[in-house]
């Protein structure tokens, strides 16, 4: 039996391959292809989890939440296709697969696959690249960059860089392509659990934008804001966020 880290990586890799095959073989594009990818990736991931961890529960973007998960210590939190819009655009790479295990509300094992880049980032110890040189770069949502991020960037003379998937943005910080990822304005646990788990394991800072920890497997699955950044920048960014959010 693989351990939880190995299992998360194995399942994310399998879903990544399925999504790439679908993207190559289907004539559909845009929303139609995204819907197919979401459904097929979700089915595969849940089949693999049920076979490997039949006693665990799960929370997935593509399945109705099971209230019984709230009484369990171990819950897998899944986004079968993060960045559905980008997946439907054949030229884009900024979409991902998220597979994470939450134990008592904290990510205990996690994997983020970036299939179009043929990359997999997984716990327990992903490598953290050096910080990028030059001006502070903050990654934001491609489709709904928060006004707060614009104010923070102006305060810190930072550059805002739009990108798709939350997993893609978090892993870009890990790869040393940006200094931070800032979001405010609406996400859910499946968007954030695996990226937060991998980021923390790599030595990055990750929290809500008020500095409180990210807690998972909650009755309300919304997690409306997130900061992932180089640890040496956390204090500066949190102070700028507090000043601009007040």
Report on this structure.
Keywords: Magnesium, Metal-binding. One of its GO terms (molecular function) is 3'(2'),5'-bisphosphate nucleotidase activity. It holds the Pfam family Inositol_P. The chain is built from seven helices and ten strands. Helix 4 (147-156) crosses helix 7. The radius of gyration is 17 Å and the shape is globular. 38% of the residues lie in helices and 23% in strands. The mean pLDDT is 95. The protein has 246 residues and is α/β, with parallel strands linked by helices. It has helices at residues 4-25, 30-52, 84-87, 147-156, 166-174, 189-202, 234-245; strands spanning 57-60, 74-82, 96-103, 106-114, 119-122, 137-141, 159-163, 180-184, 205-207, 225-229. The strands form two sheets. It has a five-stranded mixed beta sheet with strand order 1-2-3-4-5, with helices on both faces. Strands 7-6-8-10-9 form a five-stranded mixed beta sheet, with helices on both faces. The chain folds into two domains: 4-122, Fructose-1,6-Bisphosphatase, subunit A, domain 1 (Fructose-1,6-Bisphosphatase, Chain A, domain 1); 137-245, D-Maltodextrin-Binding Protein, domain 2 (3-Layer(aba) Sandwich), CATH 3.40.190. A hairpin with a 2-residue loop joins strand 3 and strand 4 (106-114).
